[in-house]
Specification:
Order of helices and strands: HEHEHEHHHEEEHEHEHHEEHHEHHH
Helix content: 40-55%
Shape: globular
CATH topology of the largest domain: D-Maltodextrin-Binding Protein, domain 2
CATH superfamily of the largest domain: Bacterial extracellular solute-binding protein, family 7
Bound molecules: beta-D-galactopyranuronic acid
């Protein structure tokens, strides 16, 4: 080994050792979000970017790309996993097929309400879910709210499971959702969020399911005017970062990034509650035919095979499901 080479090698080793203790000092990140300006998640992610720069004196910066301009959600999840993008605001629905622990939140009616979901996420359940995601390359820095999802369609009010029979219903990419529609006798149609409006309008699908803010912001209420309050899914969303990028940061920067995400979640959750009310009022004003569902237990019963099938093929997830069910 020549002296020069040895010197540069020593220099490299020293630099690598320094990096391992001090972490990456400067970085410019890119972030994905599916929602438009003014949506609670969009404002939340912009706040995250602002806090991130503030807390790191501008060493770590994030440029957010909203409205799904960087691609569909399943693609963006992959991009963040491989590090082509650093940050994403994801719904746990399409993460489920990748990280089995995260999939339990997509079992219909697993959460009693939003508060129950918060208690689970803040406890051991949330830890197990984030550990499972981290193993697949996604570190969940904070959880955002996404309300409860209910059915809507262009045909008629849904009051009992039989009303879904024969209906073509758009679902997010996850076999659990397809199973859920099939269990009701409907025809599931997995499809990207951006394609749903046109598909409802042209009759490619009869219905879909989502929370009030997304039903409103996408204009789906204009082309699918029956909204039936089934509230069959309460799915959390994450502010996620690529696991290697997170691991490359110093402990201080990891803390700053986490704090920035959590503070943005406080804002998002507050804006969420306001927007859910405002969106509901807006679509009602526009003439949406709304109905409550008295017998939700009938839907729960009809969807039970989804649970049974899922847990018999994933027996290792039974303890997590029970932990969630036993959380008061
Ligand atoms: C929204 C959610 C999005 C996306 C969308 C969908 O409620 O915030 O991330 O999952 O639903 O139905 O595709």
């Amino acid at each position: 080994m020549t002296t020069v080479f040895r010197k540069s090698l020593l220099g490299y080793v020293a630099a690598a050792a320094l990096m391992a203790t001090a972490g990456v000092a400067n970085a410019e990140w890119r972030g994905w979000n599916i929602h438009p300006e003014g949506y609670p998640n969009t404002t939340g992610m912009d706040k995250f970017a602002e806090l991130l720069a503030e807390k790191t004196d501008g060493r770590l910066t994030l440029t957010m790309y909203h409205s799904g301009t960087l691609g569909s959600q399943p693609d963006a999840i992959e991009q963040v996993r491989i590090g082509a993008l650093e940050i994403g605001n994801f719904n746990l629905g399409p993460i489920g097929p990748i990280a089995p622990e995260a999939n339990v939140v997509s079992l219909p009616f697993i959460f009693k309400d939003m508060e129950h979901m918060h208690r689970v996420l803040d406890g051991e359940g949330g830890q197990l879910i984030s550990d499972g995601m981290a193993e697949k390359g996604l570190v969940a820095l904070a959880w955002y709210d996404s309300g409860a999802r209910s059915f809507y369609n262009s045909q008629k009010p849904i009051t009992e499971p039989a009303d879904v029979e024969g209906m073509k219903v758009r679902v997010m990419n996850n076999d659990l959702y397809s199973g859920m529609i099939s269990a009701l006798g409907g025809n599931p149609s997995p499809m990207a969020f951006a394609e749903v409006y046109q598909s409802l309008k042209t009759g490619v699908v009869d219905g879909a399911e989502n929370n009030w803010p997304s039903y409103e912001s996408t204009g789906h209420f204009e082309v699918a005017g029956y909204y039936s309050l089934s509230q069959h899914l309460i799915i959390p969303e994450c502010v996620c970062i690529n696991a290697d990028v997170f691991a490359s940061l110093s402990p201080e920067d990891q803390q700053a990034v986490t704090e920035a995400a959590r503070e943005s979640a406080d804002l998002q959750r507050q804006l969420w509650a306001e927007r859910a009310e405002a969106s509901r009022a807006k679509v009602m004003e526009a003439g949406v035919q709304f109905n409550e569902i008295e017998n939700k237990a009938a839907f729960q019963e009809a969807m039970k095979p989804v649970y049974d099938n899922y847990l018999s093929s994933n027996p290792d997830l039974v303890p997590l499901v029970e932990l969630i069910q036993n959380t008061d």
